Each structure stands twice: as C-alpha cells, then as structure tokens.
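User: Thanks for the earlier help. One more: Secreted protein. Can you show the sequence and predicted structure together?

Assistant: Of course, both are below.
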Amino acid sequence: MMISVNLCRRGFVKSASLALATLLCISLQAEDKKKPTEQPAAAPDFTGDWNFQTKESGFGFDLVQTGDKIEGYHNSVVGGGRRVDTVLKEFGSPPSITGTVVNGVASVKFKSGYGDGEGEAEMKIVKGKLEWKIKNSTGQHYFPEECVLTKQKPRAKKN
C-alpha cells in the first residue's frame, strides 16, 4: 500500500509542477504584452533660432536641418558691440554654417563674416540646449570657442 501512495504523490507532484510552470509562462507572456514597446530616441532637430548671451557678448544661429544636412547663418557680437561678425540670409549671402548630422551630432564648417576666419565645429543638443564647440579654426573670426545656446521661441507674426 505504501508504494502506490508514493507513486500517486510523485504523479501529483509532477502534475502540480507542470501546471505551475505553465501558469508561470502564461503570466510572464501577459506581463510582456503589458510593457510598452521601447521607441528609439528621436533624432535631435537643430532647426531654429539659437542664442547665447552675456553682458559683453552675444552669439546666435538661424539653422535649418533637412534630413541629415544642416545649414544656417550666424551673428556674433563681442567687446560690448565693438566687434560684429555676422552673415545674414536677408542680405542674400550663402550660409556661413554647413554640415551633416550623424548619430545626433552635427559636424559643421563655419565661415566668418568679419574676416578670413573659418573652421570646423561640433554641435549637440543636450537637454534641449545646443552645445557648440570649435574643433579647429584659422584666420580672424569672432565665433566663441565653446558655449551653450538656448532655442528661441518663434515670434508671433504681425497681421
């Protein structure tokens, strides 16, 4: 009699273990369906007016990003207004900033509107702000070596 009770218990334990394992799998599958699917991080958009300001100087861009291409115009004022380095679209000038965006980083070339200065810089958007850093440059220009610019809100159009 003892042998048949032990066999029954083993059969019950196997059945219970199998049922428990099945319920666990079903439960895990249900949990997976509840989790939102992760979306890849949105690529940063450099388009807009960006500005950096101190008491004695100011620096800004008007940038347009189309796909992975970026171009724009700059305005730099230093020395309390004694030096101005500007290239504006309104005057029909070619863009002073051109480049490509790869993995969220813009590698750009820039050209001075003041002197013969030109160079290469890197731009990244971090927490909604644009980080600018010159990698190399030659000639005379008034671009800051590095700074953090804030995106300006679009102005309401006058009717």
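User: Great, one quick takeaway?

Assistant: The longest helix spans residues 2-34.
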